[in-house]
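Now read the record:
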Amino acid sequence: MPAPLLYLLDILLVTVLVYQLLLLIRGTRAVQLVLGLAVLFILYAVSRLLGLVTLNWILSYVGIVIPIAFLILFQPELRRMLEQLGRGGPLTALGGPLGREEAIRLVTDVARAARVLSIRRQGALVVLERNTGLTDVVETGIKVDAAVTVPLLLTIFYPNTPLHDGAVLIRGNRVLAAACLLPLSENPSLSKTLGTRHRAALGISEQTDAVTVIVSGESGTISVAYEGQLRRGLSEEELKVHLLALFTPPARPPHWWPWRRLTAERPAATR
């Protein structure tokens, strides 16, 4: 292959890699960590330029431990990146294994159950598995293995029943388990008003590509968490729009460029 084409391929691959890294850290605490590392780098360059020997000496030793600190601080983001590569990387389209009709039926049942639970002020936490396997989460709860229906979800989250406290995990169109335990988010910038239910939903969305529907037991507010982001104050129809965009296969052929496809398939943020 001619050298100019090799240079062009090299630049293209680096561009795609940098773009995917930016997608991974967008909206997470890693953004602040990157800014902090950038400040240290700028200070190091300025100290060398101005001949600030002491500051340069200190920053040079800090640079020795930065690679190790990078692995520790960015552990969640690196794990997400490796999981994406294991699922086929950025060239893999979003969406689960369900067909379009099955996905629409699943989304409709979940959204309808969320609306009823919201009216009743009954808290709920429903995790919808996508590409990342959640068998370890299933093992923390009580196995159910039943088809997803509105009456089933309403029964599980009825107050003071054995299964109402915890998360329901759905794989495909079946409820695998209830009363599951989820990891809590470690994001320090979260609002203090968010309770354990919302922090658990964000925690599983930060570590996996799962989508979690939350109904607040205090206010009845319906929320959805995915990719480390929380959308609150949704109506039944708005929740259906978000879930359909994530779980129904695209009606048109996907874009060849990965960033075009991801942009087309990701629902617009509401609140």
